[in-house]
Every structure is written in structure tokens, then in C-alpha cells.
Amino acid sequence: MKRLTTDVLVIGAGAAGLVSALELEGRDVIVIAKAPVGQGSSSSWAQGGIAAAVGKDDHPDHHKRDTLDVGVDLSCEAAAHVITHEGPELIEALINWGVNFDRTPEGELSLGREAAHSFRRILHAEGDSTGKEIMRALGQAVVRAPHIRLMQDGTAYELMVTDGRVVGAFVRQEDGQNVAVTAKAVIMATGGLGSLFGYTTNPVESCGEGLAMAALAGARMADLEFVQFHPTAIDVGVKPMPLATEALRGEGAHLIDGRGVRFMPSVHKDAELAPRDVVARAIWRRIKAGDKVYLDCRDAVGDAFKDRFPTVWAYCHDAGLDPATQPIPVTPAAHYHMGGIDVDLEGQTSLDGLWAVGEAACTGVHGANRLASNSLLEAVVFGRRVALNILEAELPDPQGTDDHMPQQAGALDLSDQLATVMYGAANVERTEAGLFEALCQIAVWEEKLASFTPAFRNRLITAKMILACALERRESRGGHFRSDYPDTDAKQAHRTKTTLKEIDAFIRGLNLGATIKGTIQSCQTPA
Questions:
Q1: What mean pLDDT comes out for the span 344-362?
Q2: Distance from the CA of 159 to the CA of which of 76, 310, 398, 484 falls in 20 to 30 A?
Q3: Cα 224 from Cα 246, distance rounded (Å)
Q4: What is the 3-state secondary structure (H, E, C) of 272-335?
């Protein structure tokens, strides 16, 4: 097995990982990327923009208040303070790295508004190509940085741990070669987990493997049950699903049913600009009832669509739609994970030697529901914080790494079947019966664990953790909605902190039913 050594290993090449790498100047850094930098990450797909209180009438305190309001009493106030008050400085850093944000004719930053924001504070680039532009600039800066080594087309699948300290990771390259990378510090920046679900706006690389690697190593997890479903994924039979950015609703686009009737004003006082979970459920219920739902942009955007929202226009054009004259068919799809690896305000996990950042991490800033366009902001703010914390730390050389060997694995991958199970059980609306049935199926697959690829093993672990946490939270809050417990319970206004060991103990107490040839025969609910 090939071996590499570095000061800092960054697993993942989205915005968070690249900012951390860039800020680690003076340290030798290896960045592992599943795909060429700028591709294969949710950051590069972000259309809506990045939120920051940079407007003349805005203030970070206003932004903080909006963030906390959307989090449904679960947001960490200290984390919300960090991203909203440090955000404007990071916008300047992004500009210095070469990001070309849209500007007014007078040269000022152009600011838009999205759902649940009380001010216009959303920065865009090339209309709806914000993530792509940020990743272009960061990617070019990384390529130029002499302290960074890029390891592209590689997938980390297991962490190395010695005496409770993370000392590196095993990586499988596209040619099948395994590489052991040892490091004084490891940053988990693997992004989200949308592709665990059958309907998602995320790239296929966003499958939650980083959470499983950290959990297997013993790291504490947080708020895993909270998954945000974007209300307006474009429903034209393409996977991953193209996204109709929320900025369209911010500019006045309306949701209509199959009869052409607008329905959101009767659901929420903010209508189409209600929090995403409210909009997603309203759409989901109409679709479940056999109706169709469309995003009508004809009056709000009209003939300017191609120029103002070129990415969405291209998606629609490829599907044979003209959004300037035709409503866009939409449906909810898995979009963002509020939970992840539990970290403090410096991005440190519960394990020595391991930091986490971006969507793979859970800072607590989003609580039960993410405020639109806060994800890119969190990624860059905490990307810098993680780097500064590592630069200030005294990092020991990794010890005993020669003794590490990766787990043996098979070649079977059932990711498509798992995605069907997850979307069926843990979608916009969840029930005890559906969650139990999904856990039963996962128990069947776990009996054959040695047959599966390392990637599928990790996906299975992450899916199991989400299902168990969703089953245990018997209320509805933000991105977690239980139709059998539809009310928000004030007694459950606490964050979920757990480990894989604790989750497995919880599942053992459920008395999951027997199975025959992979078909579920029974599932016993505990008395």
C-alpha cells in the first residue's frame, strides 16, 4: 500500500475544505477530492447565493435574529453570532480570492432577498451561478498555492485512529490503488448526504460517508434527524434533480396547483417566502393527493429569465420548457443536512486530531431548519476558523500508523435501493411505521456487511443513524416532521447529541422483526 505523510489532511474539496486549506499557509496540506476541484461538490451547485449583512440598512444582529428564528429554538446562539458577525469579513476574503459577485450599475454589491430574511442580503454571482463562481475562484487559488497538494479522484473511506487520536485516513483512488495518508491533523469536509435519498438536488458524491467514518472512529454526532428538503426541485425526470433557486420566489414567482390556483397564501402568512420546511410540506401534500405543483415565474421574471437566471433557464430548456412562458413542474427533494459531526466554535470534534467543517459538521447554527443561503457563509467562516485553530495548536507527530490496516470489503453496492428506502421513510413527512420498516431493511443488509463496498458500508451507517434519531424524536420541528407527532413539543427543545455506539444500543432495544430473503416479514414496535 502506498503511504503519504502531511501536516494536515483535508478530506473533501467543497468551499469549506478549500478555504481551510488556503488559510493553512505555512503547513503542508493534502486535499482529497472525489472529482476535479470545482466539480462534484454541493458548493459548486449553489444557486441561491451567500448571505451576509453587508447592506447599508442591514446589521449582523438582524441576520443573527433571522437565523435563530428559523432554527425553531434549536440554533446555537454563539454559532449564529460567529457566522453573522464574521461573515462580512469573509465576503471581502472571497473577493480577494477572485470571486466576482454581481454589482449594481454604480458598482455596489447587488443584494437579493430570500425566504425568512428580513433584509436584502443575498449576494449572487452571474445571477444563479454563485456556487460555481465561488468554487472557480477558490479552485484556482488552491492550484496556485504552493503549500497545497491536490489528490483528485480519490475517496477516503476509513480513518486511522491511535490511542483515541485520529492520525490519518485510508483513500481509494480511481485506479483501485489504496493509499494510507498520515497527518498531524485531519479536517473532515465531505459535504452533505442528499444522494442517500431517491430525490435530491445534491451531486452523487454527497452521500454522508464522512459522517460514517467519524462515527466509526467514535466521534459524537449532532442533530442527525434534521434534513432540509428544498421545495422546488425541477421535476423533469433528471437525477440529481435540477434546482429552481429560491431567489425566484424572492423575486415574486408563485406556486400554483394543477388548476393554476395559487395556494401558499392560505398556508402561511409569508406565502412562498415561508420557511422551506413549510413550503416543502405544502407542496408534498398536494403531490401525495395526486395533484401537480408548478412554480410560475411568468409575471415575476418573464422575458428576462434567460439573463437573470441562466442556470435554471438552461435546466428548463434542456427539458423542453420555456420558463418565461410556461410554469415549471416542481417537487421537494433532499437538499441540505442541518446535522452532522458535532463540533465546537473552532470546528473541533470530540476526537483529538479531527476537525470537521461545512455540511459534514454540525456547529448548531442551523438548528432544526437552515436559513436560506447561510450554508455557504457557514462554510467559509468556519473554514477559516478551523484553519486558525490548527495553526495555533501544538500537533504531535502521528504514532503507530504502520500497524493500521483497512477493513476487508466486498464489491456489492446497493446505493439505489438504499436511496429508495430512505426517501420512502425519512422524507418530508415521517411516521413511526415507516422509520421502523427502513431500520428493519438496514438490519438485513448489515448481516451481509462483508459483501459490500466500503462506500456502501459508510452510506448504510449514516442512513441508520438518521433513521434512529428521527424515530427517537417524537415531535415535529423544522426539517423533521412526524405526521404521527405533528406538534412541536416544548419539552423536546434540545439538540440531539449521540454516538454510533449509543445508536446501536438504541436499535438493539427495538426488537426489529425477522426477514426472509430481504423481504420484511414483521417489525415489532417496543411496548
A1: 98
A2: 76
A3: 24
A4: HHCCHHHHHHHHHHHHHCCCCEEEECCCCCHHHHHHHCHHHHHHHHHCCCCCCCCCEEEEEEEE
Give the sheet arrangement for strand 361-362, strand by strand. Answer: 361-362, 340-342, 221-222, 497-498
The predicted-structure confidence for 18-69, as pLDDT tens digits, reads as follows 999 999 999 999 999 987 786 656 676 666 689 999 999 999 999 999 999 9
Q: What is the DSSP string of 471-502?
A: HH--S-BTTB-BTTB-S--GGG-S--EE-HHH
Selecting among 113, 220, 276, 385, the annotated active-site residue is: 276
Q: How far apart are CA 207 and CA 460, in angstroms?
A: 10
> In 167-298, where does DSSP find H-type helix?
209-216, 247-250, 276-288
Q: Which domains does the chain have, with CATH numbers?
A: 2-226+338-402 (3.50.50.60), 230-332 (3.90.700.10), 415-520 (1.20.58.100)
Question: Could you tell me if residue 402 is left (phi over 0), alpha (psi between -120 and 50 degrees) or otherwise beta?
Answer: alpha
The cell for 442 is 438496514
Query: Is residue 276 annotated as part of the catalytic site, yes or no?
Result: yes
Q: List, for residues 357-413, the tens digit of each pLDDT value.
A: 999 999 999 999 999 899 999 999 999 999 999 999 999 998 766 667 787 778 999
374 — phi, psi (to 5°)?
Answer: -85, -15
Q: Which amino acid is at 285?
A: R
Residue 138 amino acid letter: L
Compute the distance between CA of residue 353 and CA of residue 40 in angstroms, rounded to an integer. Answer: 26
Burial category of 313 from C-beta neighbours within 10 Å (exposed 0-12, middle 13-18, buried 19 and up): buried
* Residues 181, 166: Cα–Cα separation, whole Å: 11
Kindly report the three-state secondary structure assignment for every residue of 412-423.
ECCHHHHHHHHH
pLDDT at 250 (0 to 100): 85
**Residue 242, preceding peptide bond in cis (omega within 30° of 0):** no
The residue type found at 166 is V
Q: What is the pLDDT of residues 438-471, one digit of tens each?
A: 999 999 999 999 999 999 999 999 999 999 999 9
The predicted-structure confidence for 114-131, as pLDDT tens digits, reads as follows 878 999 999 999 877 888
325 contacts 317 by C-beta, under 8 angstroms: no
DSSP state of 53: -
| The predicted structure's pLDDT at residue 513 | 61
Q: Average pLDDT in the 170-181 region?
A: 91
CA dihedral 187, 151, 202, 274 (to 10 degrees): 40
CA–CA separation, 306 and 460 (whole Å) = 41
C-alpha–C-alpha distance, residues 34 and 54, integer Å: 34
